[in-house]
């Protein structure tokens, strides 16, 4: 069962079955949030990602993938810690960030400011 999130309108939920279409085939860069319901830092970063998704609409897509429900994608990218953020460009992972962080730091680490 897919979890309901308050940021569902700006952050799309992907699954093992939709990952290739939604992430790898995307024309835009995609930031994937590997998350889990039991992860407090994941809940902390969710509103940060929602705000970033709104600010970067049209330039960057942000999606979330629940690792407990989607083990194939988690294993394929060797994600062991949550939250892990993987930035994909042209279907390839180009940057990995582990752990929650404030929005300004996240923007800087993703190269969105300057």
TrEMBL record:
Family: Belongs to the thioredoxin family.
Protein name stated in the entry: Thioredoxin
Gene name linked to the record: trxA
Domain of life: Bacteria
Protein's organism: Streptomyces polyrhachis
UniProt keyword terms in alphabetical order: Disulfide bond, Electron transport, Redox-active center, Transport
CDD domains membership: TRX_family
PROSITE patterns according to UniProt: THIOREDOXIN_1, THIOREDOXIN_2
Entry keyword Disulfide bond: yes
Domain Thioredoxin: 1-114
